[in-house]
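Lab channel / #folding
Pinned by the channel admin:
"Please post every new chain as: sequence first, then the structure tokens as a reply. Keep commentary short and put observations after the output so the thread stays searchable."

First post following the new format, from NK:
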Amino acid sequence: MFDVAIIGAGLAGLACAQQLQQAGYRVVIVEKSRGVGGRVATRRLQDTCADHGVRYFEAQGKLLEPLVEVLVQRGILEAWTDNVYQLNSAQPEVTNESESSRMTRYVAPAGMTAVAKFLATGLEIWLNRRVEAMAPTAENTWHLTLNSPDETFKELTASSVVIAIPAPQALMLLEPLSETIPPIFLDSLRSVEFAPCLTVMAGYKNEQLSLPSWKACSLSHNSDLAWIGLDSSKRPNSKAPIFVLHSTAEFANSYLDSEDLKLVGQQLLSIAAELLLPGLDSPDWFQVHRWRYAFPSVSLTQDYLYSAIPLPLICCGDWCGGNLLESAINSGISAAVAINRQLQQKTLPGEGFLNIL
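Reply from TO:
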């Protein structure tokens, strides 16, 4: 029996869990994937790694600024570049971004998931377990049914639940409870919209390419390719170049359910080769990742979604109060405050999830 079950080990879920656990609650996070972080994601491949989700952190905002500062001090993050180049829409050439928009971008040499792993310090997290259903019990608790490879972890019971996953996924889980949950709560979830993205990770032999002077380039006026980064420039002593490409939402919508993602990835590589760097269309290897919920395109204005039922249930994420990393952390902390209000009213550590640093 747990005080709080949190569904989702992204930044919002981790921030919420740290707040509640430090206050003395017994907390468990249930995560369907093999690791923590959500879209703060790194893939291990070819004896190295590539960040195929969040590309970098920026030290701006009352939560991210101190977090980045401490993570830099601990060697988890380091400065990467202060200049994301822009592809001029009028002619295919790379130009610097304006001086006024320059800011330092920070990355993790070990991969961006290092940040999430650090925020997960001390938490009880059940990985590879998808919540298939949840229901209130006669004892006024929540019962969660899990799809788990381990027969001993097929279910759990908690006094309260925080759902820290994309709104469309939360809706699929909660719609069967329409007789319990107010319609306005479900309608709010339905109002949130997410944009997809297709990400290509491509590796090259050293002799294949003449490396560009830039580390990252935004293609804001291209209908297919949105961003490309020299991901291997984040790694110390990288043996060979690796590029990561992100499609536009429009391109992803057209090919998201394609049966041959390799063909789609090759198409993005060909676009990048034509516009930016000859040879990008002939990698030594490449992989494609499908982000169905890459980023919120329509968000809620409030910091979390409150169910207003006696049995505590709250939704949070980067789709609450904005669509940025700062929004995710703030939403998780705000959700912890709301859950605490419905439970024992313990003393929360404020923004003290940083107390683990």
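NK: The two ends are 28 Å apart (CA to CA).
TO: also worth noting, The mean pLDDT is 92.
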